[in-house]
Amino acid sequence: MDIDKLKETIQDFFQDNTLTIVGSGLSAAEGIPGMDALADKLRSDMPPLLTGKDDIDIWNKIVQDLDNKVGLEKALQNSTASQHIEKNIRRITAKLIGDAEKEIMTNVFRGKRTLKFSEYINRFNVNNSNFTVVTTNYDRLIECACELNGIEVNNLFEGAFFAQLTPEQGRYVGKRNVTKRSKEVLVLKPHGCLSWYMKDGQPISVKIGLLPVDDCLIITPGTNKYEEGYSLPFERHRNKANEEIDRASRFIIIGYGFNDHHLENHLRQQLKAGKPALILAMTLSDNAREVARTCSNVIAIEQRDKNGSTVITKSEEFIFDSINLWDIEEMIKEVF
């Protein structure tokens, strides 16, 4: 495969009914802390919050796993944390990500930087298609990138400041007599969002900065991660995400490691059935690499050295020097 043919193939993904799946890799590229930074933050902030012997023993076991180079997600799965520990994991995680998000958005507002997703979304004809993004990220960089480009976001909530979960009405927020809105992106977040809270037993979505992020609704790594995905509002977003995955004609998958049980059954089923997918990552996870090497219509691209790309398909592997097609910002410049 030569570079011109590869660019043509990539261009073919930018059309109607392409579903975009975004993982933590894109947020990390923008400056949102990843698992290593979160592990360090939990190490420093968690101990003062624990007073009971059982909680201290559980946390010491988690730290011991981290010391033994077990990844954070696996370490949290190895030990059944108490509700007190889980609550503080959520609060520390939300605060860490929220602080980074605030700094990023402040620099965007002041014109010091742009978001990688901004140019990406502009390469689709959002006016004439149902454009959907499924993301496992808690931050709101995708939503901000869309709105900064004049594209409204439907997150299945209805309202401006204290939006209520209304999956059947969310697409028509503020326009009940209109059958379809123009320039709208459906953003589905099965792991939650820094904007989501529980009020009087019902999930709500609030404007950025209206409430502290400490008590927001997010699913953090741990033994209860899978179970929590079946409660509101996560269940509605997970179900809708899987419906959109089944309906899509093709996929662009950005910084996603294929490690999420809430989406994997539907996504892998569609890829094995032959739906085309373009996978982009700085470093492909083992699961992502396995998908590329077993599914016939999948192209995966990852970084090679500091300035190059490795392209992996089921039958072949290609190397392109001096071109970073794995990065959506650089890819857009090269391909369009």
How would you describe what is shown here?
By secondary structure, the chain is of the alpha/beta class. It has 13 helices and 13 strands. It has helices spanning 3-11, 24-30, 35-45, 53-67, 72-78, 83-109, 116-121, 141-148, 225-228, 234-247, 261-272, 286-294, 328-335, and strands at residues 18-22, 131-135, 152-154, 157-158, 162-165, 184-188, 196-199, 202-206, 250-254, 277-281, 298-303, 308-312, 317-321. Strands 3-6-2-1-9-10-11-12-13 form a nine-stranded mixed beta sheet. It has a four-stranded antiparallel beta sheet with strand order 4-5-8-7, with no helix packed on it. Strand 4 (157-158) and strand 5 (162-165) form a beta hairpin. The radius of gyration is 20 Å and the shape is globular. The model is unreliable at 172-179 (pLDDT under 50).
| Average predicted confidence as pLDDT | 92
Note the beta-strand portion: 15-25%
Radius of gyration: 20 Å
Number of helices: 13
Largest sheet: 9 strands, mixed
What is the N-to-C order of secondary-structure elements (H for helix, E for strand)?
A: HEHHHHHHEHEEEEEEHHEHEHEEEH
Number of DSSP strands?
A: 13
